[in-house]
Amino acid sequence: MFVADLTFDCYEETTLAAAESAIIRLVNALRFNGQIIGEEFPTVLKDGFFVTRVMCPEQDSLHPLNHSPFVKHSLEKLNEVGLLQPKVKIIGQDIHANGSDCCDQPSSYILYTTYVHTCSPLYCGDDFLPVPLYKIPAIANGDYKTLLKWQEDWQACDQIQINGATRCEFPALVELSDVESDLYRRGMDICKRITYLTKKPVYYYLYRVGGQNKEQESQRLCPSCGGQWRLEEPWFDLFDFRCDTCAIVSNMSWDYQ
User: How many domains does the chain contain in total?
Assistant: First the structure.
């Protein structure tokens, strides 16, 4: 991922509140379009112009060709409060962040995230790198807000169950690992939508922890259809199970790895 600065020049007098509102609107539009990553975007006022620092999945993520209708509308709104459209300066590549998928035509996708990931939750099924969301057709209402909100909820549940400090741990774990959970239902609806738009299979990652023992764990069946789904070799050294019928992948219980 790449660190970039967005510089907003003022061409007429404005107020701090009006400028702040317009910049936040644009930042949210870029985020929900997958052009910037993360949840915190510091903005400073310096010598009469505003600078917002963002993280982008690719060096050209902020190119106008990637803009959604909401981004274009938000850019137009800047003029109403006396701001010019932002100048983009790429600071450099973040050495701690994931790279991005470069496949022109991935054969499949995987919906996967964890509480420590800030990148796209959609991974390429060929190289297991995060796919910039603007590389696929918009999911709903012109962008990917639905998918990013699902990611936020999944990560919140993951953080709670990892911390294990409250009684919320077990309901959170159910959301991550049960095919009857609301989180699973929402995620599978998103997978089906992306499959429809891209004509490519999209696998849903079902978290797995617990189990009786390693032997029983290795023999467990698909929780959705009851079919055999154990792989001879782990997929990307992470997924020990895959059901092509139900489009689900999972890991051997973390208790036995």
Answer: 2
93, 117, 135 — which closes off a domain? 93
Q: Kindly report, residue by residue over 153-163, the tens digit of the pLDDT.
A: 999 999 999 99
Q: Are 50 and 146 within one domain?
A: no
Type and span of the H or E element at 25: helix 16-32
Contacts of 249 (CB under 8 A, 6+ apart): 110, 203, 204, 205, 206, 235, 239, 241, 242, 243
What does the block give as tokens for 14? Answer: 């404005």
Domain that holds residue 155: 109-250
Per residue in 159-214, pLDDT (tens digit) is 999 998 888 999 999 999 999 999 999 999 999 999 999 999 999 999 999 878 88
* pTM recorded for the entire structure: 0.93
From residue 1, how far is each of 39, 68, 145, 165, 190 by CA, in Å? 15, 20, 20, 33, 24
